[in-house]
Amino acid sequence: MRTLASPDRETPNAETLSPKPSPASYPVQHQHHLDRRSPPPPDHLKDAIHILSSALIALKASIRPLLPLPFPTNNAFPPALPTYPNFPGLAYALISSAMSAAEIHLLDDARTPPVGAAAAANGLGLCGNYTELDVCGHEEARMPMRRVLAVEYTSAALTVTLSPFRASRKGFDWMEVRDWGLGSDAVPDGEGEEARVRYWGKVRRVVQKIPARVEPDRPVTDVIVMGEAVLGETFLEVLREALREVLPDNRVLGMGFADVAFADPTFAATRGAAEFGKRIMESPDDCVETRVCKWWRRMVG
Known about the structure:
Blueprint: E1 14-17, H1 43-63, H2 92-101, H3 114-121, H4 133-142, E2 146-153, E3 158-165, E4 175-179, H5 193-209, E5 222-226, H6 233-244, H7 249-252, H8 268-282, H9 291-299
Helix pairs in contact: 1-2, 3-8, 5-6
């Protein structure tokens, strides 16, 4: 497998990651909760868990008035499905433990990547009849293979990710490059035109790193955008011009630009995760035996 090219010298904060293996090859990792059955979290995670759980508790308080009442049980809160960003040092144990401390039930142990969720919010990789397991499974198997290029631009960082999948819920981040020095807060202000040109030149190069290195027989099929700063006029102009140099026009003019309908990039991953959560709760998974399971059961007697 090929490692992405090293970041340019003038962007010392850039971080590049090697292509990742299929999720099927990941080792099984057990969820960590703060309860009597689990050991206490490591000391280096306690402060982070407290910060994150405090934010979740505040979020619960703001959401509660918007939810239908009464709750199923006394003071219960509906289960949630978080996305799991690939940030350095962000352990999955931190997220699950913070949710447990905030008394929010984790709907599914699977790690939901933000790109797959955002793709789902944009209507990519979703079966039509998700309440019929066999029908949905067959539909997903016939879906075209997508290679989604996601460009996320926030106040803190610029991130470009390539995620291949047929069904968006099974997507994973295959390649990723992130530069913590190219968030929207880093746009030069009052430093002269030369500094601005240098900043946007770095943005262009980061955007082009992954699409310029994909194999011709495995091209990018879709482009989506994410992040609260991505709709800035200058950023969209730079993004469009950068991608036109490495992708066909029909990809660049696709999802994520002002002339095409798309999900709100600020909340796209949240909306997609909510869609996944709805499908998990409304599907008969673990309740109905699929035809494949029935066949295997007959085969083994």
